[in-house]
Amino acid sequence: MSKFNDIDRLCISTVRLLAVDAVQKANSGHPGAPLGLAPAMHVLCRDFMNVNHENVDWPNRDRFVLSNGHACALLYSTLHLLGYDYTIDDLKRFRSVGSKTPGHPEYELPGVELTTGPLGQGISNAVGFAIAQAHIAARYNKKDCEISTNYTYVFAGDGCMQEGVSSEACSLAGHLQLGNLIVIYDDNSITIDGKTNLSFTEEVAVRYRGYGWEVIEVKDGNDNLDAISQAIKLAKSNKKQPTLIKLTTTIGFGSLNEGTYNVHGSPLKPDDVKQLKKRFGFNSEESFVVPQEVYDFYKEHMIERGKKANEEWNSTLEEYMRKYPELGAELKRRIAGILPPDWESALPTFKPEDGDLATRKLSASVINSLAKTLPELIGGSADLTPSNLTRWDDAIDFQPDDTKIGSYMGRYIRYGVREHGMSAILNGISAYGYNLKPFGGTFLNFVSYASGAVRLAALSGYPVIWVATHDSIGLGEDGPTHQPIETVTHFRALPNMQVWRPADGNEVSAAYKVSIESKATPSIICLTRQNVPQLEGSSIEKAAKGGYAISEYHGNTTPKLDLILVSSGSEVSLCCKSAEKYSKDHKVNIRVVSLPDFYTFGKQPFEYRISVLPDEVPILSVEVYATLSMCKYSHEQFGLDRFGMSGKSKEVYEYFEFTPDGVASRIAKVLSFYSDKTIRSPVRKALA
Amino acid sequence: MSKFNDIDRLCISTVRLLAVDAVQKANSGHPGAPLGLAPAMHVLCRDFMNVNHENVDWPNRDRFVLSNGHACALLYSTLHLLGYDYTIDDLKRFRSVGSKTPGHPEYELPGVELTTGPLGQGISNAVGFAIAQAHIAARYNKKDCEISTNYTYVFAGDGCMQEGVSSEACSLAGHLQLGNLIVIYDDNSITIDGKTNLSFTEEVAVRYRGYGWEVIEVKDGNDNLDAISQAIKLAKSNKKQPTLIKLTTTIGFGSLNEGTYNVHGSPLKPDDVKQLKKRFGFNSEESFVVPQEVYDFYKEHMIERGKKANEEWNSTLEEYMRKYPELGAELKRRIAGILPPDWESALPTFKPEDGDLATRKLSASVINSLAKTLPELIGGSADLTPSNLTRWDDAIDFQPDDTKIGSYMGRYIRYGVREHGMSAILNGISAYGYNLKPFGGTFLNFVSYASGAVRLAALSGYPVIWVATHDSIGLGEDGPTHQPIETVTHFRALPNMQVWRPADGNEVSAAYKVSIESKATPSIICLTRQNVPQLEGSSIEKAAKGGYAISEYHGNTTPKLDLILVSSGSEVSLCCKSAEKYSKDHKVNIRVVSLPDFYTFGKQPFEYRISVLPDEVPILSVEVYATLSMCKYSHEQFGLDRFGMSGKSKEVYEYFEFTPDGVASRIAKVLSFYSDKTIRSPVRKALA
């Protein structure tokens, strides 16, 4: 006998119609997936999800990820019933400017765990949730006191299954045996272009079994609530494999156009809405209707259960604090999102006599220090560990115990050659909570593979870190396929993104300092393969401003500056060397400005910025990159508006004239050109 | 009895040692994969590959793709033996500046079909090769005259299997039943981090079977030449499925460190090289040795066979020209890479009275015209056909015949939700030849998902086209997850990349004109979802310069310009409207400059550029994008250095003040600020 009855069907119809009404009112949106997935959503909430709208950040809540984010009318409607801060009026303002119900779910909204919509991301973020949960459980759970027990549930559609980012993340999830991850795949055979037989005839179940997942097929996802519930229960009981529940549904269930792409992404016809309401037993003339018994049912069954679970967890936490005061204090600190006192004293500082070192090696020193100080640091690399130098000395790999090559206690993740999957996972780990500070390594050029996830980190404000080594032609022999040219400009243009390119050890420490302290801005830290000197004039404090005058070379006795060289990373020392020689040879005064991060420099007050880049001095930028972004902070640019070359680092620099002589010839041209011209600082602007 | 004997083993040893010597000489590179894959390479060349070093572009040559491009020492060594223009001295200059043997294979080199190295790309490009071959065969082959019969062979490693881009492309390849595609997967269980058990324990064979591929396992790829040959033969006989040959090899075979990650990416120790040479029967004191019998064997068996096949094909082509003169003429034209005469007369032109239309709709008109005129146009979309409007009226889908929903004759490809896979496939189609002009549609924001492939298009010079609709906040309700902000700056910074953002119908035609004519530069054409007016002052000819003064508004009778508004796409009409009103209200003279493509504008002579953006006039840019790139061509920027918002297009523009009033308030500030200042054109520079 079914445990579901009329009230369940009424709840489902209510959610379906709320979603449809929201789309109609907005005259925009996606009714199809909500109509198809409302039964699964109801069953998930009724029987499994423990959440608490009064404490939305309760650390042990179950996580729900709507990877097919365009179905958000379903999510907002359900969150409304679950007591979250969404009124019926909010639902009526769906997809309108400034509303709490935008066209895709956004991280900062109550009950929304992740920003989703770009397909493939949510399910991949969810792998990050599952990793984070497994790790927190391994670190803190005690047999008599289980702190972390939550599951991560995902809804995903055909699009999410087709995107490569999810292939990467799900392959890794299978490898990592993440039994706490349950994906409900809305197998409705429809995408925007039409039937999936146009482009997507692979056997998804076979593929996921190949990844090492358990796959459960539920054929009648429109009706068979018991089967859905059974499947989720079975999935939960499998502690060694993530589960894909392949749920066959009808897109736009109940609509006259059900089962076609017409119901995917635009409102239904008014007549269709009427018959739909009638069919579900609602008054076809009314909109946004929630029967009181639906509110009551959600309150009694879901809201109360969630609140109770939260209360029990609070007691568990108290008990934990008593029994395990040391770990308990760490846990409490992390839940509060506070770094340990004096953590930054772990950051190394450097003097010129420390000699030449690659900034990737300097980064390795920082990581080694921080890993000891910050238990929340959780790192990894997309199969470039020996190149990125991201693994600290006594790191334990994050691996299932039975592999004997690590444990879930471990904090070093072997991501495989999966930059995009890694990056989406970083986002998930960060969003999971417990002050987790994830970083992932790859070559700077291949951060671009992860653009989709990097963008979502910036948009959502997940303060993750990419350790991006081999940051220029300085990587040498691997050649132009591996040498970034446009990459830094790309990410400098991304709002809410730090792009650090430290010039030496102190600047590396500064980059990590600001990145680790960041609450809502991600960072890419660009690091050299090749050695650079430790510079006179650098300091953590100065570099932490994002830009500063690192040194001045006076070839004459007047205080007047003749030229500023502005640069970043490995070219700062080149500028210093060039300026030193040129100023002496030509009796001019040259300042070198190091600009390790545009974002941070841009946040400094105008007075500071103009003091670094004053009026009346020509500014020449030097970076072995596309010159486009340096147009913002210089009058003239010496750069590389072409692809690089395979060869020894030094020879490639010489080939492109990034040498003291090459810089000198540009300085001469710039000085001559500007000698009779009025010059305004690029930071002095009419529009702030 | 084996058909292979001592000479085969000698050939293999020779290639192995050439590759090792090249890496040793360079003191940089990857010996492991060449040592493991040399047997497969030899068997492939000996028994299957038909190529002709004297006619490297022979259209019906078999295609070889080294997807694990870091193994290029293997490729260069083999090309040397195959008679291609690589001397032993070239091999000695491996990975050095200006050499013909760079650190990863580059498209322009003889015998190198594709630029590879960034993992996952080559195998995905190869899907494009296979699609292109199937299409050319379907279009031109006659029962008595087969023009196109070649196969595409790919070597790929674990990295290529892990990357999501290959998952996307290979899923589609299975759907498309591409029997002409044969991938040899070097299953050596080692990646840079160590054993694949660190991160990659999925069953690749199961996954590929799920994609619909045939999978053949060859366990002893180090020795069993017969098994390799049999497997490839079997793969060739399967006309309905692509084949993955899972070839177990030992990375660094023969080295003292064989089977470990130590042999992956750095030279062997000198002693190791010595023992290796001894082991393979070579003098351990000599380097770069090719026994004469090896040259002879390659000449007799491979070079001669390839030449003969080419000659036979030439005869077939002659016969074809006689029997099928019309198709034959088209074929000949396409092989020569020449567009049909007067093709550009198919491009529509527009007048203001044609009214408001979305540029994506204007693009649809162009595509409709061009599809009739250009049989080489081969389009598609990553499951956004009804949004991108990329499918012309009588298009036939590229599908296997037995699906009954298209045919290989078709020129419209349903890529599924696979932007990166699609883009890599576009690159492959373009590189295949026959003047194929591939385009692929997606939202501009999701071209970023494909950054890895876009970059390789620019680096290699594949003139492909991305039809990138929904190009700004103007897409409205879908909100910030879908609204590009940084995207255009990213691609403007990419060398050799056109980024068109046309303002109206004439500019759309211009964008296609320049993109279709391009021989070695790819294009992204950014198009609006929302309507824009047809502008007075636009023309194909003017827009084809990349930037021009589209109109001037004189509020007083002097010729002196007070301000220039520079803009692109949908903001050009906003600028015109704003300038018209402001100039009248304030009696000033304002020029509006439309800058549809930075790349093309940047190629114009200085005199032209300075005439468009003259000295002594303040220039204000207006784009609903990150302002970074407009710093290149303006003094002041009005843009969007934050993420967008979900809401109706018009309301979102209003929210961010992209209205005539909003522009006017910026104009006022700029005029006031610059009233007492000397102004230099941003195109007047000391450094060209």
UniProtKB/TrEMBL annotation, chains A, B:
Q: How is the cofactor bound?
A: Binds 1 Mg(2+) ion per subunit. Can also utilize other divalent metal cations, such as Ca(2+), Mn(2+) and Co(2+). Binds 1 thiamine pyrophosphate per subunit. During the reaction, the substrate forms a covalent intermediate with the cofactor.
The residues annotated as site (Important for catalytic activity) are 30, 264
Which residues does the entry assign to the active site, renumbered to this chain? 419
Q: Which CDD domains match?
A: TPP_PYR_DXS_TK_like, TPP_TK
Molecular function terms from GO? metal ion binding; transketolase activity
Which Pfam families does the record match to this protein? Transket_pyr, Transketolase_C_1, Transketolase_N
- Residues binding thiamine diphosphate: 70, 117-119, 159, 188, 264, 446
Signal peptide (residue range): none
Occurrences of domain Transketolase-like pyrimidine-binding (ranges) = 357-534
Which cofactor(s) are needed, names only? Co(2+); Mg(2+); Ca(2+); Mn(2+)
Its keywords, alphabetically, are:
Calcium, Magnesium, Metal-binding, Thiamine pyrophosphate, Transferase
Binding, substrate: 30, 264, 360, 387, 470, 478, 482, 529
Question: Which Gene Ontology cellular component annotation is one that this UniProt entry carries?
Answer: cytosol
Q: According to the UniProt entry, what is the EC number of this protein?
A: 2.2.1.1
Q: What's an example GO BP annotation here?
A: pentose-phosphate shunt
Q: Does the keyword RNA-binding apply?
A: no
Write down the NCBIfam families for this protein, in alphabetical order: tktlase_bact
UniProt family annotation: Belongs to the transketolase family.
Q: What is the protein's given name?
A: Transketolase
Tell me the organism. Answer: Tetrapisispora phaffii (strain ATCC 24235 / CBS 4417 / NBRC 1672 / NRRL Y-8282 / UCD 70-5) (Yeast)
